[in-house]
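Re: the pair you flagged

First of the two:
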Amino acid sequence: MQTELDTMSGVARVLRVSGGLPSLNQLPRTKTLRIPLSKAAIRTSPPSITNLMQTALENPGIVSLAAGFVDQQSLPVDVSARSVSAMFASEADGRKSLQYGTTIGHAGLRALLIERLERTEGVAGGTYQEAIARTVVTTGSAQLIYLICEALLDPGDIVLVESPTYFVFLGPVETRGARAVRVPIDDGGLRIDALERTLVQIRDDGQLDRVKLIYTIPEHANPTGISLAAERRKPLVDLVRRWSDAANRRIFVLEDAAYHGLSYGVQEPHSLWSLDPDDETVILARSFSKTFSPGVKIGYGVLPRGLIDPILRLKGNHDFGSANFNQQLLERALASGDYDRHVARLRELYGKKRDVFVAALQHHLAPVQANVRWTHPNGGLFVWMTVPEEVDTGFEGPLFPRCLQEGVLYVPGEYAFAPEPGPVPRNHLRLTFGVPSEPELEEGARRLGAALRGALGAAG
């Protein structure tokens, strides 16, 4: 193999012979070497909607109903400024916030998180005190999800997910070489009967020992906007505990509550975590990216006892601890009441945008409403749309190019389905009302309606 020194010597020889700078064909050629990527890197697919984001950025006239971002005007500039000012009112406190933190997370923030959990679950103060030691602060809930997959999953292991599910979650599962298996949902969320049948089939196939995790988004799920019904929550926890006994080892439920708090005019049921009697089955994952700021990027998990040490060992290899500055900023916002006031404004903002968007869909899609249906979420940021099976909503299907011509974007629903079992449905769309303004939502619905009329006419 030619070394860097050999290459430089060759360049010098060419310079001496030619009396000047060499042309490109005079330079010595070096061998292109293969990069020995890990199997995990090779099997990890590129992000599924990167091109969508690029298209939106490059075409400012497009109405993007695709990106699941927060409203730019909703970001808490004043709240953050007050928190930072309070942090730096004392030179000593300022220095603390600028120093490294701990792997598990800032103690004051973790205590506040558990106090809030006690209030939202309606239990006496101090009831969950022990859980502070099992609460880890992460760089958004995405890091927690990755750590959980890293701690639990080996190639060939099985994760049961809602059908459809949050497509970003499928990435770490794929990276670990595990199998994501779909379980049907309905208007009440994950179907408990379907979950049991899936577990029975896996057991009969001799694969029960490979089931490690059940993933659910109980509030206003991404992508459907559907919430898990209150009457299904305790039965879900009980079913998984019973199957853990049958498998003679723990099966976990990952409760991804990223949209907790963003409910519009409805009461949120008890968390799955609060319904776990021995605190050993449910992993609670929450995030402040949607309810506060994605730029601050703070999430947290309340872990079963057996997972806290493995997760912290892995997290120590990631970062020694999430950004201490961001944690203390959030702690100030929570303690002052600014955070709660901000979330109240978000509920008003997004609740109105939800109403505007759903009404616009009803108006502009009226001519095709017999063939198209969509969810009416009670919170969160997403609407899930279903069209006839013969209409492929993917990038190569008839609808997406028509939407581009009309100037509107959506996320093809196929990305939200785990690969097993069987073919992935290709007749769904994920829509979001989070980013566009109310006039843009109205216009986006009009453009989508025009594209749908054309695609359905062509399919007919």
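Second of the two:
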Amino acid sequence: MEEVTAQSIFQFGNQIRLSKTVNTTRLLNDLKQFDDKWYQYNEFKYWIPRQGLCILNEDGVNKPGPAISSLIEWNNTHGTNWSEKDFVVPTPVYHACVDLQELLDPILPWINRTHILRVPPGGYFPPHRDSQKLTQNTFRLIMPLANTETPWFRFMIEDKTLNWNNGSLYAINTTLEHTLFNAYTNPDRHSLWLVINAEICWDMYAYVSSNLSIQ
């Protein structure tokens, strides 16, 4: 059987819209019960305002830690050996949100580190790549949820600004240089994103290829 690689998935494009959607109004309302469970995203860059809310992590407890940090920096600092495949335990966020369960259940065996990312006004991700390895083991599925519209929020791959439909799921090639920043002037306009790390395997290739929004 032919090996599945990142190129197998991203032959369809660097931003691949899938047919899978959620009711963002209902999901965001369900998430309100976890307002006290947001923690700094990547504590090694504590000066950048960003927060994460774990959906799948290492032990099913909503807390700060490697699941919402840089694994490379965490392992180097703490002498650990965490990998993406170590973060597969559902947290209370997963159990409380029917929309998340309906979206994630069909692919639960092949996904790992998953969270809601919150980027407040002034928050950003500087230009970076998510992997520099010869062989990729995972790729990103991303769903915009709220306050993701240009020009106030920009998600750029190389020099291209991406356009999004809130509540739609996308496969994104984040090995390419990409940058995010929230330029909203209203301090309440937090940008919210669902970020899923998925294995590069036949099952996930089948999921992506059979759920393309444009066949």
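The chain has one domain: 6-34+55-61+84-210.

-B.
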